[in-house]
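Schema walk-through. Below, the input block comes first and the output block second. Nothing else is stored per chain. Lengths vary across the set, and this one has 325 residues.
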Amino acid sequence: MYYDFVPMPERNPLKWPNGARLAVIVTFNLEYWDLTKDTEAPYYAGGPAILPDPLPGNVADIPNFTWREYGQRVGIWRLFDIAERAGIPVSCTMNAKMGLERPQAIKHCVDRGWELVAHNYVQSDLLTNYYFDEEGERELVLETLKVYNDVVGKPATGWLSSSLRGNPSTVEILAEQGLLYTTDYLNDDQPYLIHTESGPIVSIPYTNEVNDFMIFMRRGNTTDEAFDLFKEQFDTLYAEGATSGRLMNLGLHPHVVGQPFRARCVREFLDYAKQFPDVWWTTREEIAKWYLKNHESHIPTKKRRKGRTQSPPNQAPGRRGKKAV
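--- output ---
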């Protein structure tokens, strides 16, 4: 895979459909964690813990497991209610075991026609565990896509890796399977193309900054400060979007922002942003399909750029499985 380095001044203005200045994606992450893992190593759950002292994977960590489970039992339904009252489309990520073990929230999304993004098999098994295991990574991705199809009733069109920990090879597998977009990359306020051996795939950037993990669990911000952060992000991107369209994403986890004392920041932000014209409340699939048809007017692909990020040699097909000495 590779993508060219094209900074903002070297792009043509991005013209969203219907003259929109800003595309906004509200992301609810629907994630499942196993209670235990068959290992004596510390259990990394793919996100921050409410109690930081790590336990071995084969020891049940009741406080952390049930804190996360609160999001599945209670928090997500609070967020669903907020989104439905605001009348916006929602983009939900879904790991495979969430669909198998906690299908009620998935069915809620399917019944409303909301977007579901394939989000790895289980939250605690990162794709980087398979960095040198080409077939292991492929098997995990394909099994995730199979469960997605069985649970959702149609093939996945996009992917977000657990903890954003995909490999350079991941997009090759996704493009080979016909997916349209990845949302693992954090490097832009606009979509762009990543080129693979199976053709281009759209990068629809995620955010680790406008994200409740970062805001509440890592920075320790308050609910009021979270709203201020959402508003500041929106206002800046909306202003910049007057000349070239921008993309804003909110990354939200129901066990974090779905807590009663935090959910207000989401409700108040949606009330605020809904007042503005020329905002495209959308999904990743809508953006990907539109961008595949319109990318040449934004970033032409005809010439080789001065900078390029590409798969390192140890990710080349057939060369994986050999760790550097």
